[in-house]
Amino acid sequence: MARGAKRLNIKVKTQKFRNPHKAMKALDRVIEKGTPVGMLTSVFYLPYLPSALRFHFNAHNIIVYGKENGHYLVSDPVMDHTTTISYDDLLRARFAKGYPSPSGRMYYPVELPKDLDLRKPIVKGMKWTANNIVRVPVPIFGIRGMRYVAKRIRQWPDKLGERKAILYLGNLIRMQEEIGTGGAGFRFIFAAFLQEAAQELQQEWLEDASKEMTGIGDQWRELAFAAGRICKNRAADGENFESIANMMKQQADLEQAFFTKLQNIQLR
Amino acid sequence: MRKDKVPQDDEKILEDKFKVVKYAVNQQGEYEKVPSVGWEPENVALKQVWDEINQDIEDACQKVNEGKLSPIAYFMKKNLMDEKLLAAHAGINRWFVKWHMRPGKFRKLRRKTLERYADVFKITVDDLWHMQEQET
Asked: What is the ipTM of this complex?
């Protein structure tokens, strides 16, 4: 977030608070001026979400853009329309405990640049993403992370027993589909971004890259689909933890090839 | 993912409150936001965790009824918390929280302490005492 703003030359103010009521007052002051405010909340304390999705997850970002009759107007990225939340509920969600603790963190733009040039920041952002996936030398991130998980999946049935292994697999599906907005662990959203970037930068090959990314996203969904069948004991022939691990490995290979290509993007 | 392939496997996970936004390609190959009510594997995975959680809650409930645990343990599970998280929310040291799980200790707690727990669980002290559930 901070990085994106800096690249776009937008000045963003970030605040965190110790006193919950002061935090709410500060929020009131900003939205009064008509500035939308982003903030960190805990999913568990957002009553407008269905109970089945409410876990203790403390890094959910929402945007508050106004106040009406004591209720705050909210735009939540997982929902297809806006909603409202009461003072008390929002306060609770902003000051949930646990890790990472939101401590009422909020952020809003203070100064926008007059002429917005998207081209440079797009290129920078792409390079950064690609680097993160392909080149981070720690084995739990990016493609090395995927390969690591693949290896672990193979061991699950022996190590944890049938029941737990299946639970772990279910968790994998949830992390991929639910947490990654837009499906397939952000892959589709990224493909959509590539498509827009192709227009903005006037670089045809990004269109193809977008299509390739969509393909990779589809593969991720295949993986989730197969995993779902295993969870329900309805696995097709030859589908087991081994085959999931192989799929995961294949994904790592595909993404390595893809992001290595993307790394070489240049402004023309 | 193609737009017409966006899954709509409704199992009332979202309680008809809203739809989830997915990104998908339309016939011209352009990306669009498409609302979806759910997807089979996601539903399966979700159901799985909730079964597990509900089992946990039931176990805790039984233990409380048998006099092995205090109601705090039950409400902790009900709120999907563990001792660490509960301790942080209540502002009570983790070791004390663990202690308060014992029925004998629980009965001797001061009202002030009970209120702290009740606040965290969004219930009244009476509810906490008698382990009644509240509709939220």
From this structure: 0.76
